[in-house]
Fold:
Amino acid sequence: GSEVHLRVRVAPLGNRFMLLLAADRTEELRLAGVRRDFVANISHELKTPIGALTVLAEAIEAGAEEPERVRAFAKRMQVEADRLGRMTKELIDLSRIQADDPLDHPERFPVARVVEVAVDRNRVVADAKRMRIIPRVLEEAEVLGSEELVTMAVQNLVSNAVQYSPEATHVGVGVRVVDGIVEIAVTDKGVGIAPEEAERVFERFYRVDPARSRVTGGTGLGLSIVKHVAVSHGGEITLWSRPGQGSTFTLRLPAADASATEENA
Ligand code: ADP
Structure:
């Protein structure tokens, strides 16, 4: 059927890790194109909520509206301002990730803590949908890089899993280590992603269903942040999905060398 098992491989920024030494030129060139479109995309994306805010404010100022409608407009303005705020925050996050290399000043941190914080930050939204997020940390592992950025990436994956799943379903967050690579897999029983969309969802501002995503407040930036976090840590992000049944996003990061801990201690 329409099952997709796609690996989105991205060339690492440096060549610190043997793991991904083979740089994929095609992907590099494609990313350069995406970057060129960035300014055009960003102005378009920001114009939509700003335009809505302007129109709504003008309507209220004209004073011809019933109080009931004024309240509805104000509510709509809150939604748009909220979205604008989230978009600004995510854009700042994204430019920060691109501006500095987390491996220039790396810190060691446990993946278990990343998962705990990322799950915790999604608790309220999950509870509201009667969903349970189930962490399964099978192995203790540490990663070298920015704990804040990796947490942000996992948080985004969990947030998407909750957002694109029906009520009362479960989201799994599994951690294991395979050949020196830490795998953080976020699995949902949600709407899934069609094969033809699989690669595009990692692009900035791309949303499979913009109308629906607007209602739920999506910005289309979450997965591009995840991708950049993966790349800047010498790792990768892969996606497995079956439309209508669910998705698994797996973030793979090189495990911090266990022997290095003892040397440094
Ligand atoms: P958004 O803010 O819209 O969630 P993302 O970059 O995080 O932006 O995701 C891009 C698009 O990929 C989403 O709009 C959604 O259509 C799709 N998507 C992301 N995660 C999932 C998931 N777990 N299940 C189904 N679709 C997803």
